[in-house]
Structures are given as C-alpha cells and as structure tokens.
Write a structure and sequence with these properties.
The chain is of the alpha+beta class. The protein contains four helices and eight strands.
C-alpha cells in the first residue's frame, strides 16, 4: 500500500485559477494608476509608468490584464513544478519535485522535518537527503509512521 503526501487537490486547482486572476487584477490595477504614478515628482523610475500610461485605451487595459494574466499563469506553473510530492511504501520512499523523482530504499535511523526541509538519515547516521518542500507536517508524519519508519517530531541530537 502506498501513501502519497501532496498538496490538497483544491489547492492545486485553486492555484491554476487564483494566480492568473490575481495577476490579471494586479495588471489592471497597475495600468490604471500608471498615469498618476508617472505624474509624481518623487518617483525615481517614471519611464515604464509613463510608457504604460500612454498606451491608447482600451488597449492599455487589455495589455495590463493580459500581462498580469500571463505572469499569474507563470507563477502557477512554477508553483506546480516546485512542489514536493512524497510517496511512502514499507520498502521505499520516493520524493518528486521539479519533474524529477528520486527513490530511497536504505534502512533509516530517522525521518524528520527541519523547518521546511524533509530529512532522511541513514542507519549509519549520514544524511541521505534534505529536500525543501512545503508539505503538511501531520500528513507526512502519519505516512512515515504508518509504514514503520522512525519519524521524529524534532531533529534528533547529533551523535
């Protein structure tokens, strides 16, 4: 039996809708205030704001929304690419991130989260992996405990 710890489906779906919508809203907002920002005497980099404010309407608004939408989609894609997926079986741990999967079958001394990093320590005390990821602490602990791995709530003391 496999246990997979990943972001909840609702969060993965929401990121693909929410990030582009937030980007589009931000693009619209920045475009709409660009003329005002360009008129302020104390703003150091007026050039980009002035350029954006001079785009004729409605193309200025459409461009602002489009650029924001594209930036939001890019952000969602990076988020999906960077997320850590942990697959735990009684004999193997597979970590997937950035399009790469790595499997570990060694006997382990300890498994724990050190901040946002998942750490696997081999039976001889050496660090097999330290993988950064934003995983649910309770879910990952349960996955390892259910399969008989030596889960620690805190990093163990150095020998």
């Amino acid at each position: 039996m496999d246990t997979i710890v990943d972001e909840p489906q609702w969060l993965r779906t929401a990121s693909w809708f929410g990030c582009p919508l937030a980007g589009a809203a931000l693009g619209w907002f920045l475009q709409s205030i660009s003329g005002w920002v360009a008129s302020l005497s104390w703003i150091p980099f007026k050039g980009p704001f002035k350029l954006v404010s001079e785009i004729p309407q409605p193309w200025g608004t459409v461009t602002g929304i489009g650029v924001g939408l594209a930036a939001g989609l890019l952000f969602a894609a990076v988020w999906a690419h960077e997320r850590l997926i942990v697959k735990v079986t009684p004999t193997r741990i597979t970590l997937t991130t950035k399009g790469r999967s790595r499997a570990y079958e060694a006997e382990l001394e300890a498994v724990f989260l050190d901040g946002k990093e998942l750490v696997l320590l081999a039976a001889d005390g050496r660090e097999l992996v330290r993988q950064k990821g934003d995983v649910d602490r309770k879910a990952v602990a349960k996955a390892f405990l259910d399969h008989g791995y030596p889960w620690h709530d805190e990093p163990p003391a150095v020998k």
